[in-house]
Amino acid sequence: MVRWLAIILCPLLALQPAFGQQAAAQSRVRIVVVQGEGNRNVTQQITAKPLVVRVEDANNRPVGGATVTFTAPARGPSGEFANDSPVIRVITGTDGLANAGPYHPNANEGPYQIQVRAEFHGEMATAVISQTNIARGRGHKKLIAIVAIVGGAVAAAGIAARSKRSTSSSSSPTSTSGEAAVGAPR
Question: Which pLDDT tens digit goes with each residue over 40-68?
Fold first, then answer.
């Protein structure tokens, strides 16, 4: 009888660690960057695109109630969150989303990464969000070039229009009285 019991229980005991590992693998969390990857931030200005991540379980379902920590570098190109710190913690909603809120890049230009860490029931996941701080004036060079081109085109059109009027007015009858001139309808 003991022998039969050992034959039945031994395989079950051997399988028990495999069941435990499978359950642990299913409870693991992961971070998906939803918004903010590759942002080009103008130095000293609040970014237009927020930093948003979604925390999911192993079955790609959202994890609500997870603690998410966003950490910008302490030196060099970086920035601060609404709490005037390079670190902010938020809790995911039922949709699994965590929004870092307003982000203010510092005055240092260059690429950097914001570290993201999610924790939920003893499980942890990490990710990075790549950012680049750019100088304020870089976008204005294109605008100045466009305005110069448009201005040149308008000036050329004005010269052409005046030239056309002066040739057409010489062939149209004109009547002058005092300083006002009256010509044929155009």
Answer: 999 989 888 899 999 999 999 999 999 99
Task: Quote the pLDDT of residue 73.
Answer: 98
Extract the tokens encoding 1.
């009888």
Burial 68-99 (b: 16+ CB within 10 A, else e): bbbbbbeeebbbbbeeeebebebebeeebbbb
Short-list 114, 107, 50, CA closest to 82: 50
Q: What are the tens digits of pLDDT across the range 116-135?
A: 999 999 999 999 999 999 99
Q: Which of 45, 37, 52 is nearest to 80 (CA)?
A: 45
Q: What six digits make up the tokens of 58?
A: 């192993």
Contact 32, 93 (CB under 8 A): no
